[in-house]
Amino acid sequence: MLPAIFTSIICGLMVDRYGYKPVIGLSILLTVVGCWLRVIAPGYTVLFIGMILVGFSGGFMSSNTSKVLALIYGPEKVSVLAGMVLTISTVTLVISMSTTALLPSMRFAFILAGVIAIITLALWIIFMPSIKPKDIAAAAPGGEKAPGIRESLAVVMRTPAVWLTGIMMFCVLGAMAGTGSMIPAALQEVRGFSEATAGVVGSMTMIGNLLGSLITPTICIKTGKFRPMLMILGVICALCCIFAWKTDGFLLYFLMIVLGYCLGSGMASGLGMAVRIHGIGAKYAGTAGGFVATLQLLGGVVLPTYIASGIARGNYNTFFIVIGVACLVWLVAAFFLPKYLDAKM
Question: Which burial class, exposed, middle or buried, applies to 77 when counting CB atoms under 10 A from its CB (0-12, 13-18, 19+)?
Answer without folding.
Answer: middle
